[in-house]
Amino acid sequence: MPHRLTRSLQGLILLGLCIFFASKAINGQLTWYINARFIPLTLFGILFLAILAQTVFAEVRRSRAEDDEHEHHHEHQHSPIGLWVMLIPLLIGVLIPPRPLDSSAFTSKGLNTNAPLVSAESSAQLFETESEERNILDWLKLFNYNSDVAQFSGQQASVIGFVYFDEALGENQFYVSRFVVSCCAADGFAIAMPVQWNDLTSLEQDSWVQVKGTIEAVVIDDRNVPLIVAESVQEVPVPERPYLFP
Q1: Is residue 229 a contact partner of residue 214, using CB atoms and an 8 Å limit?
Q2: The whole model's pTM is what?
Q3: Does pLDDT of 100 surpass 60?
């Protein structure tokens, strides 16, 4: 493949990657892929891709002008393999519909009713947080790092997550689940709280819901786990940030 054509295609792919990531930033989908704390770095990367694409296009224009000036049109040939290496990530991003992780990932990532790999440092301040402001991860932290979980029984809870039906649960029970992401979706792991709700037929697997009710302590796999005795289960849109961050 001629050198100038290769460089032109490289510039187009760089520009395509820039537009792809910029579109994800604009529509708020970056947090479907990465931890929110990396968004500023990603925005810098988008700017860098734009500058790099412009640099490549400027080189192509300069090369064409020099060839025309010296009436020299012979170009070195290059292998297209490098272009495919650049193009494949862009094709994957464009062709695969974006969506946050859901229960289909449980087969490879598993499901936790505790908070593994999460530090206990912040659990103390959760006592000062209003119970209805705690998310799923907050509740699991409290139950993980406190021996007296009876103190939480009867407290009001209001959490958002997606529905997961598990045959191992009791009658009229389901899990309300979220993924915890440290760096990116690849390292995400699922956490869940069981919910007691008498109208399971109104729920669909992976639908996002807000569960409100009172907390009870139950034992699952020899661990104390917070169960929500639901007073209401209301379907909600996918949150702007579907993952929780430790």
Answers
A1: yes
A2: 0.77
A3: yes
